[in-house]
Amino acid sequence: MENKLYLMFKIIAIMFAGIAIGYLLRNVRKVKVVGTTTMITIVVLLFVMGGEIGNNELVVRNLVGLGGEALLVAVAATLGSVVAARIIYNILFKAKGEDEG
After folding, report:
1. Class of residue 10 by CB neighbours under 10 A (exposed 0-12, middle 13-18, buried 19+)
2. pTM over 0.85
3. Residue 14 banded pLDDT, cuts 50, 70, 90
4. How far apart are alpha carbons 82 and 75 in whole angstroms?
5. CA angle, residues 46, 51, 53, in degrees to nearest 5
6. Which end of the chain has a smaller Cβ tally under 10 Å, C or N?
């Protein structure tokens, strides 16, 4: 348990170090290419993950059930976020007496 906790904090520290470096280098022209390379890396990562999932017989056999549960969770999370955002908007940002539009 202690090793997992240490690893989690290490990963979070690395992420914050990246945020700090990105903030410091935000005006450097060559660094602006990072967005494109990040997108390419994510697409490649998703492709490799898809290959791993397709290679796992247990996942492929249970894909319909897992996909249904994942869809339900995704829809519930999205609806919850929309409702919460609407409530917060109405409380914090909507001017009194303003018509909905």
Report:
1. exposed
2. no
3. very high
4. 11
5. 90
6. C
Helix (H) or strand (E) holding 18: helix 2-24
Cα–Cα distance measured from residue 48 to residue 78, given in angstroms and rounded to the nearest whole number = 26
If you count them, how many residues does the chain have?
101
Angle value at C-alpha 22, between 20 and 23, nearest 5 degrees? 65
Q: Are 25 and 31 in contact (CB under 8 A)?
A: yes
Going by the DSSP 8-state scheme, the letter that residue 2 receives in this structure is H
Tokens of 49: 């993950």
Instruction: Tell me the C-alpha distance between 50 and 77, whole Å.
Output: 23
Amino acid sitting at position 42: I
Is residue 66 scored above 70 in pLDDT?
A: yes
| Helices and strands, number each (H, E), in the chain | 4, 0
